[in-house]
Write a sequence for this structure.
């Protein structure tokens, strides 16, 4: 009878089976992916001068974001700009921006915008920033948040002064610069 | 066999009650064959008895039938998670229970139903994986059907259902995650199963948290599955859809947080959701809360 009573005791339910789903700490990666898609799109809607169509297509990143660098490197491993291969650089010395086709200044490094403008004078670099108001302070394309959504502001004159040609569709898709 | 012999003390009581006619003799014969370990003959005799008009409504006959089928289950189908013999046994004990409400009969039938229902429960638990989950559902439903006969407390039954639904929802999630393209139905199943839990227990932390994570991961997947050459217009649509999902995730995760504000996973989840909604201050506030909690450990 003892044995029977032990068997009758219902076991500890489904505790082992219904363990919590691990939280996917992927918000940063998803955010970075959206930025990488935008950056790849810039290469389709913006034309660099002929002398920039040789060698690698260099994207320089100023600031620390492992997620963004990871996404850009993934992009670089599968995509090209015409015949040019992508080269993703984490910029530690501001002098390196002179070799870049695109310079992306992350939010926390926004204070470096004036230096970047100085170092890219006379070059054909697309300056991309990530802080409200920078489109009026020399940035060509500035990432902005509109109703939780990642969008871009585009300052056409800041693009053209670097001898870059921007397609009308990209201008239309960007939000107006405040 | 020792086990069977012990139960024959009860059998004696039945035999005393037997009236000497042909069909009651079949019941007696079933007992004798059972005692001799001849389960096939025992089964044939008792099946004949319960089919006959004289003993078809006899509680003792059905009890014996239940006992015979239980022994067959134990000896021949113990590893069969869908054992038909076990269900026959349960059905027989249930029938006996319905025919005779005397204390002794009720106790004996309940004891056997509890035992067999517990084996159903255990098998349901063992089958909670991506291969056998359908068996788990069948076994669990049967468990509930018979468990309700022996434990009529709605609270206990509801609690079992909640626990099972949480477990089966996590199996559905696992199946979905094994192939997000072709197993999309399992995502819906997981959501509807968590909803069932929340309908009866809105403050269930696991269901709230897991529901939040399902929407969150769905939104993240939507973005991560996109190709880099996705057009900006299409990217805008993807963002709209993912934002909708992140916002659907939020109330569940907030609820889980309100129920347990110090739970690491929930704080990470909320930080992730707000980050994805580009609400960085809120995201950081949850990150900081988590850091504070981890410092205190």
């Amino acid at each position: 009878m003892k044995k029977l009573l032990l068997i009758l005791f219902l076991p500890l339910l489904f505790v082992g089976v219904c363990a919590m789903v691990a939280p996917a700490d992927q918000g940063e990666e998803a955010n970075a992916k959206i930025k990488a898609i935008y950056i790849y799109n810039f290469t389709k809607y913006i034309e660099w001068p002929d002398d920039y169509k040789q060698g690698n297509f260099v994207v320089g990143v100023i600031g620390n974001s492992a997620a963004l660098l990871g996404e850009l490197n993934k992009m670089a491993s599968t995509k090209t700009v015409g015949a040019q291969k992508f080269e993703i650089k984490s910029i530690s010395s501001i002098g390196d921006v002179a070799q870049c086709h695109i310079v992306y200044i992350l939010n926390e490094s926004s204070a470096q915008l004036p230096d970047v403008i100085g170092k890219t004078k006379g070059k054909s670099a697309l300056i991309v920033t990530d802080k409200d108001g920078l489109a009026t302070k020399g940035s060509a394309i500035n990432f902005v948040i509109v109703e939780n959504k990642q969008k871009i502001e585009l300052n056409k004159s800041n693009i053209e002064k670097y001898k870059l040609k921007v397609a009308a569709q990209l201008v239309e898709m960007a939000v107006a610069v405040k | 066999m020792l086990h069977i012999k012990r139960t024959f003390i009860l059998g004696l009581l039945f035999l005393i009650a037997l009236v000497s006619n042909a069909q009651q003799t079949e019941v007696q014969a079933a007992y004798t064959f059972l005692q001799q370990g001849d389960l096939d003959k025992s089964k044939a005799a008792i099946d004949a008895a319960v089919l006959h008009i004289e003993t078809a409504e006899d509680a003792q006959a059905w009890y014996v039938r239940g006992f015979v089928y239980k022994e067959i289950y134990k000896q021949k189908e113990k590893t069969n998670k869908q054992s038909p013999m076990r269900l026959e046994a349960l059905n027989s004990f249930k029938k006996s229970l319905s025919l005779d409400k005397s204390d002794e009969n009720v106790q004996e039938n309940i004891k056997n139903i509890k035992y067999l229902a517990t084996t159903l429960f255990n098998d349901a638990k063992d089958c909670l994986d991506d291969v056998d989950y359908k068996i788990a559902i069948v076994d669990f439903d049967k468990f509930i059907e018979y468990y309700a006969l022996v434990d009529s407390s709605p609270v206990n039954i509801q609690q079992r259902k909640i626990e099972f639904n949480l477990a089966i929802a996590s199996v559905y999630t696992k199946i979905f995650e094994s192939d997000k393209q072709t197993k999309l139905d399992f995502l819906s199943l997981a959501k509807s199963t968590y909803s069932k839990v929340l309908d009866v227990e809105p403050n269930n932390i696991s269901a709230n948290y897991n529901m939040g994570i399902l929407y969150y991961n769905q939104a993240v997947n939507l973005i991560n599955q996109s190709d880099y050459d996705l057009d900006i217009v299409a990217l805008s649509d993807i963002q709209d859809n993912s934002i909708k999902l992140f916002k659907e995730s939020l109330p569940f995760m907030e609820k889980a947080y309100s129920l347990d504000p110090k739970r690491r996973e929930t704080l990470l989840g909320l930080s992730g959701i707000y980050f994805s909604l580009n609400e960085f201050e809120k995201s950081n506030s949850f990150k900081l809360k988590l850091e504070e909690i981890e410092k205190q450990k």
In short: Chain B is about 80% helix and 0% strand. The first helix of chain B runs from residue 2 to 17.
